[in-house]
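ping. complex inputs:
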Amino acid sequence: MTKFTFPQSIKSRPIYGTLEARDGSAHLLVADAHGAEAILDVATPEMMAKAHIIYIPKGEHFEDKLRALKPALFYSGPSYSAAEPRLRKALADARMGLQVYLTGTEGLMGQAMNAAMAAGIPHTAIQTEHRGSVARRMQCVHCKGITEDVETDPFVCSHCGLNLFVRDHYSRRLAAYQGVRVDAEDPGNVPEPKGIYE
Amino acid sequence: MSGAEKIAVTVTDIVPVNELVTRFEFKRSDGGLLPTFSGGAHTVVEMRDGDITRLNPYSLMSDPMDQTAYTISVRRDDQGRGGSLFMHTKIAIGDEMVISYPVNLFSLDLRAKKHLFLAGGIGITPFLAQIKQLERFNGHWELHYACRTQSLGSYVDELTSQHPNETHIYYDDQKQVIDLVRLLDGQPLGTHVYVCGPKGMIEWVRQTAAAEGWPREAIHYEEFLAPQPGKPFEVKLAVSNKVISVGEHESLLEAIERAGVDAPYLCRGGACGQCETNVIDYSGTFIHRDHWLDDAEHASGQKIMPCVSRFEGKTLVLDR
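pong. complex structure:
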């Protein structure tokens, strides 16, 4: 399940597209796991000559294929947190004309978009394509802690331990969906967790 | 009454800037303070010239935080419909005039890390106010200003003496041209480009920036279109049940107003979208000149911007 059609939802829920090669002075591609497939689909030799790929494999094995594209710069790191200083440096050094492509999980795209926006790129000019896991990055509205890669609804906050309902309410600033206590009125009455889109 | 709210003002100063450009200063006739505005805003100046009332937009060039007076610069256009000539020849210090509240269709995007200003000729005026606004909070900006000749370079001396490091001047007669591709390519991420000047310059900057991979949201432009003269034509206003004729030298909007029909407007220059009017029926050809409607809307025959666009043909029925 590397491509998934998300059900229609509320306005704040991000909508992802399909990457397309655009003219630009440089290309920054950030991906995790199966996002590598979208890079393999969109890459052209012309783009790769001016490309910087930042990749977080998350256990997938696309690194050799990505290196074979011969990007000008290639980095592979264990987590977004590990890759972030490099991403911020790349953005800080970039000039106008840079094209940004984000692909993979929602959590990765959201956080990288956050960094790109902070660097001054309008969010509408940043391309995204979802691939791979449909897990979400969630913020607990009660303790404000972030739980990564949430696959079930409800789930247990990894910080305060409350049982949280997965909402579609999304914050671009936090790059996270909102998790709200599911058993506030009737403590202990927690529905059986199931997949977010089941 | 349509348009922005009005302010009664007195002309308190008139300064010839050069052969073509004259600066006018307005203060409130009641002695009060004018509203603050944001850099890039314009005011619509009412000109009562005999039987003709012209409403022309001019960019405010004074300090946006200075509430004591507004200044505008008017470039004389001998081929135009007479608004600039009226200002140049009929207006004297002490005259009472009516101007509109400031309206901004060319504001700074304050999320920008840097503001790159490209001006051509009289297109410098909105930038003069934007520069004053940015200077107040230490904004990061740079100006590239193309003028025909040294003697026609309005406010060049003021800009180069006050902001020598930010100001770059290009004189056409000395074959100096903005090296646009290089200029755009060197800009740090988060730069927004703003262009105000002749149509050709605006198109050049928009197309070059887009080709260099600049996001659409980071490209800002302002071009006030003056309504162009054209063949007279007749229009039926369906809602008010009137048939009016549009003269050679008046715009459709002016003809509608002359007939006593209150039609919405704001910029009167084809940019803001306020005067968008539905077409009920037509037989003929539209001469669309606005920046507001897209190509599909222009081709649809369903909408017209009466401030700048005209019509040639047998019948035109508007929902007004």
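Chain B has a mean pLDDT of 94.
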